[in-house]
Amino acid sequence: MKKVAINLVRFNQSFEELILAVDAALAQDYDNFTFTFTENGSRESIKERLLEKYGDSPHFSYRDNGENLGFAGAHNKFFAESEAELVMPLNPDAIMQPGCLSALVAVFEDSTIGSAEGKMLKPEVLKDGSHLIDGTGLIISRSRRARERGQLQKDTGQYDQDTNIFGVSGTAPLYRKSALDKVRIGDRGYFDEDFFAYWEDLDLAWRLRLAGYRSVYVPNAILYHSRAVGQSKSGYKNPIQFISHHSKFSTKVKRWNWRNHLFAIIKNDFGSSFWRDSLFIFGREAAMFVYVIFCEPSTLGAIPDFFRLLPKMLKKRKAVKKMRVISSAEIGKWFLQKQSN
């Protein structure tokens, strides 16, 4: 039985906000797992309340990073120190349903699989008893726009047969630790810590694919996820809705979002598929730049940071090049897949 290590990172969430995720994780029927609650620089401690409620659980442990290392840094520290075969970064608002962990673990009997993701649903129940999809795996277009497959669609099982995905979301994925070790950059560069937050999961998914690992969607591994930041319902097809949706995000989020998806392309894209799709890529980036100028001028504050980090990204690109085992044409097939809303 493979050992699983789950890590939930807290940054200022209240005790009440977290207990659903912790309760659900500790209630999983898979026996060989540990659950670590990682404090990551929150203003107020909830350690005593956590230990009072969960301290007797054989699965539960508490650790304190002493500062905010970001999503990437906090999980990287955990990954580097873990000796488990499989590791899971768990978002504080991700509520695993019974049997979720067992279903995810089962697919790792296939040694080619480096990561897996369950069916993420919005927790609200619709009138007919169904749910909206939050995500069924990362997809990426010819313009290199990445997003969650099926997000905001009503779940009718429409994705349950198509289980081979480009990559997994960072919400509640399960990773093979040896695969992470193979694609890390430096001592603990699993997620890219220079991203700090947003699109570090895409970057890692891309590296795993380039290194020859598969990612799969496991439809019977169910979890509920509210998601603070997601895509607008109609995407670019409804510009007014798109602008209204993005206006709700903080300036930091918008800067990270814009900057980091560019870094993911710079680090990982290459070869014939890049040049084949270059008009789509540069066209989208030009359109986004015009949009930012007129609709999100505060996002332009990401530009100095972009150029400050660019030399590091180009250096990391060289490291990614060394781990590639598949061709540009092979990975380029993923960018041609049909993108449905």
Can you offer a commentary on this structure?
The protein is an alpha/beta fold and 341 residues long. The protein has one domain. It contains twelve helices and twelve strands. The chain has helices spanning 15-26, 47-54, 70-81, 100-106, 177-183, 200-210, 239-246, 251-268, 271-276, 278-295, 302-323, 328-332; strands at residues 4-10, 33-39, 60-64, 86-90, 94-96, 113-121, 133-135, 138-140, 146-148, 164-165, 174-176, 214-225. Strands 1, 2, 3, 4, 5, 6, 7, 10, 11 and 12 form a ten-stranded mixed sheet that branches. The longest helix has 22 residues, at 302-323. The model has no long low-confidence stretch (mean pLDDT 93).
Largest sheet report: 10 strands, mixed
Low-confidence stretches: none
The secondary-structure element order is EHEHEHEEHEEEEEEHHEHHHHHH
> What is the terminal-to-terminal distance?
38 Å
Compute the number of helices.
Answer: 12
Task: Name the shape in a single word.
Answer: globular
Note the beta-strand portion: 15-25%
Report mean pLDDT, rounded to a whole number: 93
Proportion in helices: 25-40%
Annotation, overall tally of beta strands: 12
**What is the count of distinct domains?**
1
Structural class: alpha/beta
Compute the gyration radius: what is it? 19 Å
Helices and strands in order, then pairings?
Elements: E1 4-10, H1 15-26, E2 33-39, H2 47-54, E3 60-64, H3 70-81, E4 86-90, E5 94-96, H4 100-106, E6 113-121, E7 133-135, E8 138-140, E9 146-148, E10 164-165, E11 174-176, H5 177-183, H6 200-210, E12 214-225, H7 239-246, H8 251-268, H9 271-276, H10 278-295, H11 302-323, H12 328-332
Parallel strand pairs: 1-2, 1-4, 2-3, 6-12
Antiparallel strand pairs: 4-11, 5-12, 6-7, 6-11, 8-9, 10-12
Helix pairs in contact: 6-8, 8-11
